[in-house]
Each structure stands twice: as C-alpha cells, then as structure tokens.
Amino acid sequence: MIQSVSSRGNGQSGPPDLEALMGTVVSRFGKSSKGPLKIAVAVVIVLALLWGVLSSWYTVQPEERAVVKRFGAVIGINDPGLHFKIPFGVDTVQFVATERVLKQEFGFRTTGTGQGGRTTYSPQQFEDESLMLTGDLNMIDVEWVVQYRISDPIKFLYQMREPTRTLRDISESVMRRIVGNMLGSEVLTVGRVEIQQKAGEEIQALMDAYDAGIRINTVEMQDVVPPPAVQPAFNEVNEARQERERMINEAQKRVNQEIPNAEGAALRTVAEAQGYATERVNRAEGESARFSAVLAEYQQAPAVTRSRLYLETLNEVLPGIGQVLVVQDGQMGPLPLLELNRPAQPATGGDQ
C-alpha cells in the first residue's frame, strides 16, 4: 500500500502527480518566470506533507470504538486511545459510541436542560406516534422511551441501511400491538410493568433477527393518559372505580373486624360451657365420693353417724331460720326461746 501511494508522485497510474498539477496551473496563469513556479510547487508540496502528517493519526474517546476502513474495506476495530493510519484518504475512520446509552423518544421530544437542571420538552404534539387503540376500543395517549446501546459497531454501520430508523419503526409497531391487546384501564393502571417487559423482549428479538448490532437496555413508559377530548369521561370513570374500591375496602375491613369478634365470642361461649360441664361433673363426683364415705361410716356406727348428721344439719339450718318460738296451748303469748339473730354480747368480768 505504501508503494502504491509513493508511485503516484512518479507519474505512474493513479491520481495526477504534482508536475501535472502544476502544469495545469501554469497553463491557466501563464508562464511568466520559473521563480514563481518553484515557489508554487514548494507550497503545494508543503501543504501535501502537512496534510499527510495531520491525517496520519486519530484519537478514540473512552465511550467510542473506531471502525477502520482501507480503500472502503473494513480492516478492524480500534479501542480508545491514540492510533495511526495511512494518510491521503487511504485509511478512513468511523467513530461509533458503543459505551453510551442512546435513546429513542416516542410521543414527545427532549429539547435540552433548562435552569436548575430541569429537562425541557418540545411543545409540539406527536399524536401520530402516541395515539393508540386499546383492546376495548378506547383511544389512549402513550409516551415511552427505548434505551439501547450499540453492541457491534460493524453490524450497526453496514448490516442495514438505517438501523436507528428500523429500531424506531419496530418499537412503535410492537408497542401498538401490545397496547391493542390490553384493556384501556389496564394500560392506565396496573399494566405498565407488563407492557414494558413485553415490549423490551419483543423489540430485542426482532433486532436480533435483523442482526443489527443493537442491544435494548430498557423500555420505559412515560405519560399514559387519555386524549384531551375524552379526558372528562375518563376522569369520571376513574372516580367511580376509586369509589368502588373504597367501598369494597371498607366492607372488607368490616368483615375482618366482625368475623374475628364472632369467632372469639363463639369460642368463649364454648369454653364457658365446657368449664361449667367440668365443674358440674367434678362437683357430682365429689358429692358421690362424700356420700360413699358417709355411708361407710354409717355402716360401721349407725347411731353415732345418725346423731352427727342430725347435729350438722341443725348447725347448717338454724342460723338461717331466725327466731324460734315455743307456743303452748292456754298461754298468753309466745315466748322467745332462742334469739339466734341477736348478736352475741361480749363477756364482762362481773359475769365471770
């Protein structure tokens, strides 16, 4: 290659040499003298050498990769750093940002960063990208972002003509199909995560089929709202659904309170009944055991046992019957015999 470049200065095949070029210049401006001609030749040579020196090296940034072509054919990929190449257009370099996360915006456009670091957006509406028809025949406005990286610079540059445009068309097609298979209420509420996951997987599968050298990082949905024309109707529907959810939650709360209370009361009643039954059974067994013991004593000494039982019975009965009166026929009135209800008088020293 170097020999072919040097042969061009000797008048051989290839581009016109310097003498032919200067001859053209002289034929146009006339042959006034040899001094200006030598100066012009020297200037041309210096410019050619300067151009060759300046075009013989290049620098690749950390987030880039350099695809090097020689006479239009790719010969390799260079990593970040300083590199050299054959000048005079023999080697050409294309820089590809393989380490940078790129994005495609749908339904909106970011215009830059304003004061305070806040992102500014274009006021233009992109309804041709964002308006979609859901599975229940409702119109919905969906905005989303596809973030991707270039995994293979050569495939990205030469596998297809417009890889970024292809990615954009595929992303819009996939998103419209997924949203069209779901209900509008799901897209607005609980279906965002599912839509993002499905869209990312399907877009990546299609880009792999095209072998475009693009790797999808994430698909993020931004604003998902109904169109302005039907916004009031959607708001009323959402308010009704929220009211329904609120009433269902309150009813469920009441159920969660009442059922445990009823179950607790039932368990308490059952426990009280079981305790009462156990008490009665134990009391009956105790009475039966006591009666059996008294019977055994009675069989051994009937008279003594009979007297003891009689006295014990009187001891239990007399405190509760009040005064005991003895009435005799022919007497003026009843005389109290025993004043059992009168409190006992304390004993005094004189009585002793």
Automatic annotation (TrEMBL):
Molecular function in Gene Ontology: peptidase activity
Origin superkingdom: Bacteria
Transmembrane segments: 37-60
Organism field: Thiocapsa imhoffii
Gene Ontology biological-process annotations: proteolysis
Family according to the record: Belongs to the band 7/mec-2 family. HflK subfamily.
Domain Band: 55-238
Protein name: Protein HflK
Keywords: Hydrolase, Membrane, Protease, Transmembrane, Transmembrane helix
Function: HflC and HflK could encode or regulate a protease.
Topological category with respect to the lipid bilayer: Single-pass membrane protein
Subcellular location: Membrane
GO cellular component annotations of the record: membrane
Subunit relationships: HflC and HflK may interact to form a multimeric complex.
